[in-house]
Amino acid sequence: MKTQGLYHPSMEHDACGVGFVVKIDGTRTHQVVRDGVQILKNLVHRGAVGGDLKTGDGAGMILQIPHKFFSKVLKVPLPAEGKYGVGMLFLPRQAKDSERARKMIAEQIISDGGKVLGWREVPVHPDCLGEMARTVMPSICQVFVAYDGLEGLALERRLYILRKVLENEAAKLGWALEDFYIPSLSSRTVVYKGMFAAPQFDHFFIDLMDADLVSALAVVHQRYSTNTFPSWALAHPFHFLAHNGEINTLRGNINKMMAREGRISSDLLGAGIKKLFPIINPSLSDSGIFDNVFELLTLGGRSMEHAMMMMVPEAFGVKYHISEAKRSFFEYHAAIMEPWDGPAAVAFTDGTKVGAILDRNGLRPARYVITKSGLVVMASEVGVLDLNPPDILEKGMLSPGKMLLVDTAAQRVIKDNEIKSGIARSKPYRRWLEENRIELRGLLQVPGPVEVDEKTLALRQRIFGYTLEDEKMILLPMAENAQEPVGSMGNDAALAVLSERSQLLYNYFRQLFAQVTNPPIDPYRENLVMSLMSFVGRQGNLLSETPEHCHQLKLSHPILTNDDIERLKASNMTSFRVCTVPMVFDASAGGLEKAIEMLCANVEQKLDEGYSLVILSDREAGPGKAPIPALLAGSAVHQYLIRKGKRYLAGLVLETGEAREVHHFACLVGYGVNAVNPYLVFESLVDLKRRGHLPAAMALETAIENYITAVKKGLLKVMSKMGISTLRSYRGAQIFEAVGLSDTFVERYFPGTSSRIRGIGLDVVERESLDRFNKAFQESHSDTETLNSGGNYHYRLNTEKHLFSPQAIVNLQKSVREGDYSVFKRYTSEVNDISRNLCTLRGLFKFKKGQPVPIEEVEPADSIVKRFVTSAMSFGSISKETHETIAIAMNRLGASSNSGEGGEDEARYKPLPNGDSSKSSIKQVASARFGVTINYLANSRELQIKMAQGAKPGEGGQLPGHKVSELIAQVRHSMPGVMLISPPPHHDIYSIEDLAQLIFDLKNANPEARISVKLVSEVGVGTVAAGVAKGKADMVLISGHDGGTGASPISSIKYAGSPWEIGLAEAQQVLVMNKLRDRIRVQVDGQLKTGRDVVIGAMLGAEEFGFGTTAVVTLGCIMMRKCHLNTCPVGVATQNPELRKRFAGKPEHLINFMKFIAQEVREIMAELGFRKFEEMVGRVDRLEVLEAITHYKTRGLDFSKVLAVPEVPQGGSVRCVSAPVHDFSLSLDPDLIKKAKSALEFKQPVVLEQKIRNCNRTVGTTLSYEIAKRYGLKGLPEDTIKIKFEGSAGQSFGAFLAHGVTFELEGDANDYFGKGLSGGKLIVYPPRSANFRPQDNVITGNVNLFGATGGEAYIHGRAGVRFCVRNSGALAVVEGVGDHGCEYMTGGRVIILGQTGVNFAAGMSGGIAYVLDESQYFDTRCNLEMVDLEPVAEKEDREFLKTTIEKHAKFTGSSYAKAILASWDEMLPRFVKVMPMDYKKAMAKMKEHQMKNSESAEMTEEVFG
Amino acid sequence: MFKSGAQIPDDHFRGGIQNTSQAMDSRLKLAGMTCYLQYCSEWRTVIMGKSDGFLEYKRSLSPKRPVKERLKDYEEIAKPLFGDEILKQGARCMDCGIPFCHALGCPVSNLIPEWNDAVYRGQWHEAYERLSLTNNLPEVTGRVCPAPCETACTLAINQAPVTIEQIELSIIEKAFAEGWVKPQPPAKETGKKIAVVGSGPAGLASAQQLRRAGHTVTLFEKSSRIGGLLRFGIPDFKLEKWVLDRRIEQMKAEGVRFEVNVDVGTVLSAEELKKNFDVVLLTMGAGAPRDLKVPGRELSGVHYAMDFLTLSNKVISGEVKTSPDISAKGKTVLVIGGGDTGSDCVGTSNRQGAKKVYQFEILPKPQEWKEPWNPSWPNWPLILRTSTSHEEGCERDWAITTKEFKGKDGKVHEAHCARVEWARDKATGQYSMKEIPGSEFVLQADLVLLAMGFVHVEHSKLLTDLGVQFDARGNIQTDKNYMTSVPGVFAAGDAVRGASLVVWAINQGRQAAQAVDTFLKV
Predict the structure, then answer these.
(1) Digit-coded pLDDT (tens) for B332-353
(2) DSSP letter string, A416-475
(3) What residues does A878 pair with on adjacent strands?
(4) Structure pTM?
(5) How many CB atoms lie within 10 A of CB A567?
(6) Is A786 on the interface with B (CB under 8 A)?
(7) Taking CB atoms and an 8 Å cutoff, what residues of chain A touch B182?
(8) A800 falls in which pLDDT band (50, 70, 90)?
C-alpha cells in the first residue's frame, strides 16, 4: 500500500506468536515440520485477519534444506548436501516480469561466478487465500545455485553477497519489495512464508505435506499486523529469525548503521563487502531490518549468540548480579553498537543451531518444554503441541534478557549462563576497558563554582527566549525537588506554528509514545533496566574487535556541567582530541542557512584533522552574533556527517544556553547529539539563588545536582514513554513528530521525521531567532533587567494565546447557570474567534457552503446529545460531588459519563430516590485496574480500555497517600493513606495481539457492553486504530494531545502527542481504506468547546464526542491548574472536605451545556444542509481551509493530507454501519453456564469436568458475569461451582472469576491466569502423571493475577514474570516466580515457596508477601524502596502462613509444600515477610483506631450497661 | 461596601500589627521614612511554600485609625500593614492558571500573582520589578483605586479576596524606602519633542513612558502645581500629596519638563504647540461637571463638588492661606450624588466641622451585601458600599430627586426634594424614573455640593483651535492608536474615556505613549 493522505506504510506495526520446535540430536523428520505447522495453528488467535475477514497477516517457517525432497522434485541432479544453495524467490506476478527477473537472477549468478543448477516453480494452492492476499500474490519459485568448491560458511557468505547483489539489481530495475523479494538464499535453510492465516499454511504450500520434506528444526511465526494491506515480503520469518515485538529505536539504529558503513571491513567477506551496501533495506519492517544487521554480524564472523548479545543486550546495571566478565562484555560492546531496543522475543536459526532470546524487559512471552525423548518446543504459549506428560523433562520460560540455544551439531540444549559466560570470556574485554576507556573525573563529584557574568545575564537569557515562567515553573522546581515540574489541566495554548510569538524550535516537535503496539516502561519502578550511560568518541570497525574500540569517553549521563565542559576543552590527550566550533551566525546579515553550511563544513574538517570530540558552542552569542538554534545545529551536523559517512568519527557535544527543559534535552539527544552542557541554566541558578528563589539552606551545588537529576529522570521518562530503555539506542532515534515544519526543512535537517501539515521553513526559523535576539536588545533600555512573564502555562495578557480565555470561562458559566443561550453564543463566538486567531488547527478550517435546510427539519438536540460523553475523569482526581453530578447530568440526558480509572462506589449502581442515577455508564479499564471487579464490569454499558491519556501518554501516575481518603481507598480496593501507583503499561497489553485478548476478556466479562479503546493522537495512530478494529473493539477514541489531567509532568502536557485533527483524520483514512471503518465507531476528544468543534470532528470522521475540561468548567472549574495540589478553591478537583463544600455545580449546568452545544450543532447543520447527524460523519469533503491565513508562520501550512478524501473500497463505508463479530466458537463458557444453571439460579452446588487447551481462552469470565449480574460482587457461596479442567489452559484462565467459583486445573496455564480475580478460587498443578519437579518448572505464564481484587490462587509450580502485579486483594500461593513479582501491589497476600526473580515488590505499597528465602539472597532481588523485610514473628502471621500452606498442599497435592510443612520449625525462620512501609503505618493506625473504638464501646457498656 | 464587608477581624494577627503600628505612629512622611526602613528589614522572615495559604490565612486589611482621631486631621486613614502579616496576605494568592485579577480585573494588567508570590517569599525587590513593569503610579493606585482586581480575584468566588491593593502599596512604599525607585533616564535621546497637556494620572504616566523611550517631553499644567485631579480632586486623607511630589521628583530627574500655570490654548496657542512639538498628547481629563438645572441653582452655597474639594486641598497644602470661600464649618451640608466624589465631599465636610452631612443619590439603594465574596464575580458588583468617609458620619438616602433650592439673602437655605421610583421597560430594557406623588420633602441645608459626575472633557479653546473631533458624548474622539482626528495630536485618559478610575487613566496614558512612540518611529 502506498502513502496516501495521512497514511504512511512506515507506521505499520506487527506482533504475533512465535515459536520453534527442534530435535536436539539433529534427526530430521517430517514430524518436526508437521509440529511446526501445528504450533502455528495453535497460535492462530495471536494473528489477525483483515477487512475481508479472510486475508491473514502472514505466517511462515524456516526449515533446514530438505535435500532429499529437493533431489526428488528437482528434474536435474543436485550436488551433495551443503554444496549448493536454494533461493526461495517472490518474483513479479506478471509472467513477463517474472521472466525478466529470472533472467536477471541467472545473469547475476553467472557473472558472480556461480552456476544455476535449476529452477523450480513452488506448487501452491492460491484458492485458500483471502482475496486481498491473492490479488497481490507473487510468483513463487526456487532457484538452485552452486559455486565450484564452495561449501559451508564460505558458500553461505557468497550467497549472502549474491542475494544483496540481486536485491540491489532489482531496486535498480525499479522493483519494490512487493515485486521482488528473496525470503531465503542459503545452503542451510529455506523459508516458506506468505500472506495467510496459520490454518491455510500447509494447504497453500503443497511441499509441506510431502513426507520427504524433513527437518530437524522449524522456526515458525504467526503475524498480527495493524495493516491489512497484504505484504508477502513482510511475513516472518526472515532469513535468520522470527520476531515477536517491536524495535522502537529503529530510526536511530538505521542511521547509526548507515554512519558505520564507511568503516566496515571484513577479511571474511573480502572485497565483496561493498556489494552489501546498503546493509539495511529501509522498506522492510523493523524485524526485517533487524535481520539485515544480524545477518551481517553473523556472516561477518561473530556467532549468532554473540551477535544477539550485541543487539539485544541484557541489562547490566549495578543492580544486577552478573559476572564481571559479562558486565565488561556488555560495556565493551556498548561502545560498538547500541541496543535494538523494544519488546522482543526472537527465535533464530542458522540451520544447525536454533535459539531464542528475550529483551531486557521481558515483555513478550517465551515458554519452552524439553522432553526426555529429545524434543525442544519453544513458543509464545504453552500447550501448542500435545506432549505426553511423563515424557516432559523440563518446562520453563525465558526470563528477561535471557537466551536459550539448541545446538543440533553438539546435540545439546545450552542455557543462558553457559552461552554468555563462554562468549564473555572469549576476549579480555575487562582489561581492554580498563586500559582504554576515558572517564571524566569529577563528573560525578560536586559541581564546582559557576562563573556568571551578571551584567549580561538577563540579556543572554532573553536572547535565548527565557521568561520568568521558565525560571519559576521549570528551573526552580527542578533545582529544588530534583523532579520535573508537575502541572494539571490540559494545554490550551496555541500550537507553536500558530503562535504569533517567537517560538523555540523544540516547540515544533512532539514526543512520540508507545501505545498498544509496544509497552511503555516504568522508569522508576523498573529503573534497573534503564541506562543513560554512553560512549562518546571515535568508533571502530563493526566487524572487528580491538582494545581501541572502547577508547572513548564514557559518560554516565548526557548532561555536562560547566566544569565538565571546561575539563574536556582542556584535555590534551593526543589519542582523543577535543575541539570547539562556534554555533552562531551574523545577526545583522541573517544568513542562517550559510552559517549552518559553514558549521557542517567546519566540523567535517575537524574530523578529518583527527578530532574525536567536537563541541558546538553558542557561548559567543552576543551583540551582532545570534545563536544558531541548538537543535537545528545539532541535527544538521549529525545528519550531514551521516550522509558523508563520517558520523562515527567523533562525538558531538553541545554547549548551549538554549536548552533548559527536559523536552529540549530529549530533542537534542533524540536527534543525535551525544551530550549537552546547558551553561545558561547553571548561571541562571546562581542568579536565582542570589535573588532568594532557592531555599536559603540549599547549597548551589545541590541545586545544580538536583537540576541534573531532574533532567536525567525526565529523559528516562521520555525514553520509557516509548518503551526504550537505554540512551544509547534513544540517541538519534528521532522519536518525534514535527507539527508545523515544512517538508524541505525537515528533509534537509531532520530527515525521517514525519511532518504532516508542513509549515515553516528555515527562513521563519531564522526570523523567529532574530526576533528573540533583537527584542532582547531593544527591551534592555529599562533599568529593570527583568524577564517577560511568559504566559505559556499560566495566562498572561498580551502573551501566548489560550483557547479558554478568561472571558470565555465567565460567559460559559453564566450561560449554563442562567440557561441563557444568547450568553452561550457569546462564549462560543469568543472561543471560535480565538481559534480563528490561531490557537488550534481547526481554527483554520471552514465549512463549504451547502443548501440550507429549515432548522426544524434537523435532527433534534435530544438525539444529538446522545453522541456526547464526558471524558474520563477519575473519582480521586475530581471530587465525589463533581463526579456524581456529571454522572447524574449525563444519565438524565441519556448520554454517557465515564468513571475514569478510579473504580466506582457500588452504592452508585442503585438509582437515587428521585429516580436519578449516579452510575457512570462508561467504565474505564486502565493500567492500574483500580476497583475493576467483575461487578464493576457487569454494571456498565461501555468498557473503555485506556491505552493513553492526552496529557500524559505513555505514563503512569501516582496518587500520593495523603489524597487516598477512606472512600477513595474503598472504591480502589486499597488502604487509606497509602500511595497508589498506576503503571505506565497495562501489564496485560504489551502488543496488539494482547489488546485483542483484553478486548476478548472484557467482551466475555460483559457481553452486553460495547468495548472501546482510547488512543492519543500521534503519527501512526491510524494504523493502531486499524489494529484496534481488527482486535474487534466497538469503538476507538482518538484523544488530542491537549486533553486534561489531574497531574502530569509539564513536559508531557506540553509536548507529547499531536492535535486530534491530524490523528482523527489519519484514523478515519486508514480505517476507511482498510475496509474496517464500517464495523467500528470513532470518538474524538481534546479541548472540544463549541458546536463548531463538534461539526469539524464529525466531518473528519468522528461519530461521538467527549468533553472533559469544558464539562468541569460548566460546573465551576476556573482553570486554576492546581488539581495536583488538592487545593482547588471551587471544590471540583480536590478531596479536601472543606473545599468540597464549595462545589457549586448542578446537573442542570452540564445539561444546559450539552443541549446548547447540540443546538449550535443543529444551527450549523441547518446552514450546511444536513438533516441527520450521521450524514455529516466522514464528510471531510465539506471542509476547507480558510484562505484568509495571513500570518507569516501559517502561510506554509498544508492541510491537503488532513483533508484528503480517502478512497472508499467496495463494500466499505465512511462511518460505522455494523458491529464487530466476536468469535466465541472456542469459548467454553456458554456450555459451562448451561451446565451451572442450577447454581446460578438456585445456588445449588455444581461439580463439572472439562478438557481444555491453549486456544480455549478467557474461561470462567462470562460465567462470572452471570453471577455478578445476579448477586453482585459477593457472588455465590464458596465452592458453589467447582470445575475440574485438564490440559493446557489458554490465556486469561479464570479472568475476573467471581466468588463461589472454584477452578481446578491439572496441566498448565498461559499468561494472564487469574487476571482481575474477583473472589473466585484457582488451583493449578501439573498432570499427575508428570514426574518433573513442579517447583523448578514454570506451569503458569506471565502476569498472573494482574489486578486481582479478591479470591485465592494455589499454584503448584513456578509462575512467570510479573506475578500478582497490581494485586489488591487476592491471596496466592506459588512455588516460585519470575522477575517483578508483586509489583505495584496494594493489597492481598502472596506466599512464595521458592525463588523469585529480580525487582520483587517494586512499587508495592500494600499487601503482604511471604517468601521462602532458602538462598538468603532474597534481599538482593527485592526492590527495597518501599518495603521492609521482616522475619515472620507475630503469631498471627505464623498461623496464617502455616494454615495457608496447608491448604495449598491439600488443594494441589504439592509434595513440595508437604515437605516444607513436615519440617516446619526449620523452614519457618527461612521465610521473609515483605512489608510495605506505608501499609504498615496505615495498618497500625487502623488498629489503633479500632481499638479506641472498641475500648470506648466497652466503657460505654460498663457505664450504662 | 464590598471591601469593608470583606474585612475579617482576627485578633491573632492584630497582636502582631499593633507593635509595629506603635512604632509607625510618626507616619510616613516624605522625610520621615526611617522607621519604615527599620521594619522593612524584618519583612524578610519568609513563610515558604504555601499552596494552601488561602485556607490557612484570613484576609486582613490594615487597620484604620479611629474615626475620632482621624476627623481631627487630613492625614491618611489606613495604616499600611507590616511584618509577617503582609507576607501572609501574599500567601493567600493562589497563582491561578487564569489570574482573573490580572486578566479581567486590573485595567493596567498588573502582574498581580507574580508580585503577590514575590511578597510572600519576601522578595521585595523582585516584587517591585514586576510591579513597575505595568504601573507608573502604584503608590497612587495602592491608595485610591477601588480595586476591581479584588472583586475579580478567584478567591472572591466564594471567600474573601486577596488584599491586592494593600500589597501593591506595601511593595511600592518598600521600594521607595529602600531607595530602589531611582530615576531611569533614557539610554539614548531620540530628539523628538512631545507636548503632554494635563498632568493628571494619564499625563503623568504617558510623560514618564515617553521620556524613558528617549523623547523630549514637556508636561503642561494650567494649575499651579502638577498632579491634576490627583492633587486637587482627591483629599489628603485618601492621598497625601508628598506621594505625588516624590514621583514628580523622579520624573524631573529623568528629564521630563514640567510647565505649570500654562493654560495651553491661550498662553500658548494651539498653532505654536503644533509647530514646536512633533506630537501633542492631550490628557486634560473630563473636567466639565454635570449640572443640576433646577430653580435656585444660582444661590450662593450651591457649588460643584470639585470646586469645594480643590479649594480644600489648596488650604491643606498651604497654597491658599486665607479662610476658604466655601467651607462646611458649622453648616448643614447636602451632598448630591452618591459616588466617590460625593463621598470625598462628606469626609472633607466633616473635617471642616460640618454640623450635619446628608448625601442623596437619585438611584435606588443598591443591594446590601454582608458576605466577603463577590456575588457578580468577576464583575464589579452593584452593592451598597460604605466608604471611610461615610463611617465618619453622614446620613445617606437613595432614590431622591432634588427639585428646587430655596434660600435667604441669596444664600441657599433649603433643598426641596422628592422620592422617585425606578421601573424597567420590558421592551427596551431601559430603566426610567418616576416621582412618587406626595413624597415631597424639604431639607434644611446651607451648603449644597453637586457631585453628580462629569459630562465630558472641557471644550476649551485649545481643543477648538486644534480642531479635534468629539464623540457623541462630547469626549475627544481617537482611533485605536489614540490619535485624534488631527494627525500628530493624540489624546488619552478621561478626556477620551470620560470620567473614570485613575487606573484607567494610567492605562490609557501608557498605551498612548506606546502608540506615540510607534508613530514617531515610522
Answers:
(1) 999 999 999 999 999 999 999 9
(2) HHHHHHHHHTSS-HHHHHHHH-EE-TTSSS---PPP--HHHHHHHHHHTT--HHIIIIII
(3) A875
(4) 0.93
(5) 17
(6) yes
(7) 783
(8) confident
